[in-house]
Amino acid sequence: VTHFRTEEEPLCSWNTSAKQSCGLDCTADGTRIVTGAEDQKLQLLSSANGSVLHTLQLRQGVIQVAVCEAVRLVAAACYDHGVHLVDLDTFAAVGQLQKGHTQSVCSVAFAQAGQRLVSGDYHGGLAVWDVASRTLLQRLAAHSDHVTDIAVAADGRLVVTASSDCTLRVWGLASGADMYARLHVLAGHSKIVSTCDVSSDGALVVSGSRDCTVRLWRSS
User: Fold this and answer.
1) Does the pLDDT of residue 3 top 90, yes or no?
2) What one-character DSSP code corresponds to residue 69?
3) CA dist., res. 43 & res. 139, Å (int)
4) Structure pTM?
5) Got the DSSP string for 98-137?
């Protein structure tokens, strides 16, 4: 019989914000962590020694963040209806993705090795951006309520969105196409779907909801 401790001391602990920390992501090797908070701070933390490496003060509160090492960028979804891009190495602001949303951006994810970025807002809107040119490629009416989370398969051809409307939507790229189209609606949760993920091959989707269930789905 293997016994597990019911409580474990954290390796590191940071007092990063005077307000709620809303979003976080980490590098693939786990050595650096990015956090965003409602006090408009974006911070880069070291898991090796517990230090705060960089702090960037934005103009609006941060709701969610995403890290993409392929393009060395951090994306911060913010209350100002935009996505802020930050250099992962210098932690300097390098651009904004604007005019894709009319409400606060509450979810964000990189796709296609950082060539694309997908963002979702409080009105259920979804935007697809070209990261290099900072241009809006596509705007979709994805859900009837908040897009709470976005997950992307490893090849970037499949995107899954979770929403406060209690559903998930599966989006895909047609062969040779550069625009996403809705493939499936995954319905079954009775309350807000707060989080989702997709397997690297895009075959399976997992979701977590405020109805206290975790569900596993086939994406097709």
Assistant:
1) no
2) T
3) 30
4) 0.89
5) -SS-SS-EEEEEEETTTTEEEEEETTSEEEEEETTTTEEE
